[in-house]
Amino acid sequence: MRKTLRSDLETGSRRRDELLAAAEQLIVERGLSALTVDDVTGRAGVAKGTFYIYFSAKGELLAALRERYAAAICAEQERALAELPAEDHGGRLDRWVAEAIGAHLEHERLHDALFHHELPADAIKTGVTAANPQLDLLERILGAGAAAGAFALADVETATALLYGAMHAAVDLLLDRGQRPLDVDRVLSATQRFARGAVGADAAG
């Protein structure tokens, strides 16, 4: 019985992931406004009723996609940070910025659809949208740097929120099609220098 239960759970998790992956593909191809439950289940190759086993409505699916997106980006950041020594606090901050900007540029259409458009009310009530592992990771980087004396920070929480916003501002700058194309490396380097200055890395060092 235990093996059967675990098998059912694994199948359920896989089916949910397939629905999420199908929705991601459709959003990238057609945009958020054109997304329908019928399209998602059709792309995933399942009956429409299967959708409602895992999501009560389209809004809940979109909230789960936000969580999935943030978790995937954070996992990439964690892997990149694992390549650096734990004591290289400035380097870890630089890497977080580079990975975040690079990921959002790479997944421009998906990021824009999920985070630059208001989700339906049924997406908000799930509570899923509150999760932000990227923000948590940045706060850990800043906290570790401050504790080690590498960053001159009196308020890690506020600095985290401000630098997270600065990273997104850099992404928006690069994606603004109304301006002349900007050099990604230049904007990235400027953002990293700004982040180091904001946490007092040079002053602490």
From TrEMBL:
Residue ranges the UniProt entry marks as DNA-binding: 36-55
Query: So which domain of life are we looking at?
Result: Bacteria
Q: Where is the HTH tetR-type domain?
A: 13-73
UniProt cross-references to InterPro entries, sorted A to Z: DNA-bd_HTH_TetR-type_CS, Homeodomain-like_sf, HTH-type_TetR-like_transc_reg, HTH_TetR, Tet_transcr_reg_TetR-rel_C_sf
Q: Is-annotated flag, keyword DNA-binding?
A: yes
Pfam families on file = TetR_N
Signal sequence: where? none
Listed SUPFAM superfamilies: Homeodomain-like, Tetracyclin repressor-like, C-terminal domain
UniProt keyword Ribosomal protein, yes or no? no
Cite the entry's keywords alphabetically. Answer: DNA-binding
Q: Which PANTHER family match?
A: HTH-TYPE TRANSCRIPTIONAL REGULATOR PKSA, HTH-TYPE TRANSCRIPTIONAL REGULATOR RUTR
Name this protein carries in UniProt? Helix-turn-helix domain-containing protein
Q: Which organism is it from?
A: Conexibacter stalactiti
**Highest classification ranks of the organism:** Bacteria, Bacillati, Actinomycetota, Thermoleophilia, Solirubrobacterales
